[in-house]
Amino acid sequence: MIEVRGSSTHGTFTAYRDLPDAVHGMIAWPNTMLLTGPRPVVVDPGYQTQGDMLVGALAARGLTPEDVDTVLATHLHSDHISALPQLDDVDLFVHELEIETPHGRAHRGARDRARVQLLRGDAGQVLPGIRWIHTPGHSPGHVAFLVDTDDGLVAIAGDTLGPDPSWFAEMTLPDKHPERAAHLAAFARLREAAPAVVIPGHNPPERLGGPDGPGSAPVREESS
Q1: Domains of the chain
Q2: Per-residue pLDDT reduced to its tens digit, 121-146
Q3: Cβ atoms 30, 75 nearer than 8 A
């Protein structure tokens, strides 16, 4: 057994990826968001795991799976969607370009009880106060959700931002990053939305436009 630690989530991830003579297989736990308004909405249910963590997280907030009838998916990778069966029958909002991807087809079983509502085009509204924009790159049908809150606009960015928070802060990417141009275009689109807070798929939320500039003031949001 080898233990690797860094000064941050990204630092640990980088150290792990740099281990020599190793087969790298790692689960970077995703963020699951609960939007509380006229009715609860779950964004990216997360992994299906022993112990039904999603159900437990809802219970800790006084909710049951039956209380949730709407789920939003930034994309259909298994780490973001495989816990969906822990909920009751729900409306699942996902971009049409995700459905026929290899990963979308591979996880059709997770959607068996869901009423799939396809997002089409480049942008739109899901519910009052919740919009979406197409941010491909990480996957063809990846979207970000823009949520109006009392504290300003929150962008739920999914995996568009990647594992290194500095990429979005500096609006740059490694030269050989997969789908680099698409990711940078998605970065720009998120910036144009002018969110007060951006929530990545796997890192802590960040407040934009703080006293020391974009990404300077990390904030904690309820996620699991």
Answers
A1: 26-209 (3.60.15.10)
A2: 999 999 999 999 999 999 999 999 99
A3: no
